[in-house]
Amino acid sequence: MIQIDVATYGVGAGEEVTVEVVAIQVGEFSTFVLDGTEIDPEPGVNPKTYKFPVTVGPGLSHFGRVSGFFPATTPDDAKYQIFVSGDQGGEKFTGPDIRKSDLIPSADLEFRRP
Amino acid sequence: MLMPTSFFNVPCRFAALAHATAPARAVILVCLLITGQTAGALAQQPQVPQADQLREQIAALESVERDANAPPEVKAANRRFLGERRALLRGLLQKQIEGWRKYLVVAGSHLNGPEREGVEKTVRDLEAELLLVEQASSVDAAGTVSNSETSPQAPASQITPADRVGAAPHPSIVRAAFNNPPHDAAGSSPAAAPPQDTPLSSDCYPDLLPGLADAVRNAANRIVSRNDPAQIRPAFFSILLMAVADAVFTDSVDDRAAHAKFINGIRFVRAQAETKRTDKQIGASARSEGSTSAAEKPGFAELLGFAVEHGAVQKEINGTSLTLSTSPYAFFYHGQEDTSTAYKNNGYLSRVGLSATFNIADQNNVLASATRNQLDEWSVRARLSGDVSDRSYAAEKAWENFRHDFAKPDIVITGEMAAEFQSNASLEAIRREISGQFTAPDFQKSVKDVLDDASITDPNVKVNKISELILCRVRTAIFDQVRSGAFKIDKGTRDRILNVFPAQLVSALKARDNAVADFQTRLEQLSFRPEFTFAYTNKHETTGSDYSTFKLLFQKKSREGMNIIANAGLSVYHKPDRTLNQQRLRDFAAALSFEGIGGRSPFLLEGGDESRVTYSFTGRYQRMMENRFFKDRKADIAVAQFKLNLPILTGISLPFSVTFANATELIKESHVRANFGFTVDTDKILQIINLARSAQVK
After folding, report:
1. pTM (2 decimals)?
2. What is the mean pLDDT of residues B227-255?
3. How far apart are CA A41 and CA A50, in angstroms?
4. Nearest to B425 among A25, A60, A100 (CB)
5. How many residue pairs from chains A and B have C-beta atoms closer than 8 A?
6. ipTM higher than 0.90?
7. Interface-testing mutation among A103, A106, A108, A113, with chain B (most B C-beta atoms within 10 A)
């Protein structure tokens, strides 16, 4: 996996992608959706971790989105930090974050096959 | 028209009740209550048509609407009757959905998987039916708009959907529909509520859709708040889809004005706005990133000061006393990020709280008073009951019941992205090229120039300027490309954008709004659980004997805003002074207090300050053991107090109390005492200032 920009990643065929969502000063109230399907988090894993295999052909992309909920009583600097990695190399990349002050509490993720 | 699911109908049969399990019986009973099909109700003829009757009537009236041979006056009357029945059905469906949602909040955690899924499916089906009913109502309203523009003299009531079949409205008519508030949505639909500060005009992009404005403003806000032009990327899907949909609608030759109303009703920001209620987020974070110390110094007071500034220890000054308080958990995550994982693994440390109160010797350097000689008392508190905070296990478990609805807009958006671009590599290549235009050096430089412009001190101005830059690029790189055919959207995709995507998204956003509201309610319910705390206080007396107090504290909040606080305990002397008739047991005491929260203070002018009027009634009994041996003292001391706290200005309150006591610890004399004064809360003042600043960014 390579990081093209904060929200865009280059992936290989069949690569297993891991999306990790770290909740900071807030409970783990996040969701991850890929290509119109909600992905369940890995059971019993902290922080919330989502995995999926790359199945699209060359030149195509997977479209993901992480959303986070902030209860009214959470501190203003609470946030969700996203990390992305793949099993075909590359490091664990720091992706976008979602802050309580964001107008839309979501972050898009794009996984491109070259 | 969708009919309710089999789950909804089958369990409502009485025959099933006798054989159902206890939870299932509960579901059935609630189902019966929601639908009104109780035995008593069934025994009588209903005054208001039930949903099934309305569905039948609507189907019959719709057939008249479609009848080309029906006289205009018949159609006019029929249309009115149809509208009335749709309104009735809409109300019934809304009540049923609300009933099931409340049921899920209250009983969802007690249902097994299939039962809960059945209820959730019923809710989804009811929402889908509601959407279709609203859509049909919107078609009527849109027909009025379209035809009133083309035929101003035609009475709206005589125009039917059938009259519009085959008509090809001028693009301006579709655009007019885009820019009219959606029928019955702006006021009542959370997803359609107008957000604040959304720019609805642009020099580059006239007639800007509210949903596109939301998406662009969100991206600009991300860019400004993080000072990073690349932050448009995590916010780009909504921009792309809304711009493509806008172009497709604009060029549509079909009469899609009604459907256009849906896209006009898409507002992304509502759910988050609900979580920004300032009346629920007044306290400032304990962890401050800034430090005011010029240099670090050795010594207890200096080290204590460092901890205070960095939030590990909280400081409170009340008159001539200084109270320092902390929790072992605060020291645990001190200097690192307070992640959910850390809280899970070490949150038990937050069960314990430590505090020490000192008499202030030097008002110019209050922390220097934190010495043994100035110590008035120290205290340890241990929470005995479970965690009821937003980060508790119970809160995260409850989230499982709401996360599916919360994810619905993302399902629609990423699903649409996949449907449009995952099967056509050449179209995907164009999409990537278009996306690249928003991270291209020329565009990034324009954005960076705004970010770096020192003459712009108002972040809101930067957000507006960057929003305009994005909109100009959206217009040329997406909207115009779709209309010109360079960014070719096939017929199937166009049909889906016209007929499916906007309605799905509106429905999904409503579902998310409901999930947010319901989950917030669930979190509040968690805080209503009773809390038990054990407290130990070591009291240092300057003129008498030192003693320790052991107390059991109880607190129970209620949804009506009434708190019940009770505590009971005893105190013992460390070294009883026999010459003063002291024995080991000093006293025992019990207190009961009812605290209420009233409405927002009527004296507050600052819009961001939601401080509430609070009041309390307290009764306290104390048995002072040594007083039994003094004639001028009373052993049994009773106190009753009423207290009112009235915020009068931001951060400034007027507390007022009336107290009756039959004696004090030292004087056997009943009395009534009234107290009032002013309290200044600097934290609150700073918070309001910060809120005002952050509001400029949003």
Report:
1. 0.64
2. 88
3. 5
4. A60
5. 191
6. yes
7. A103
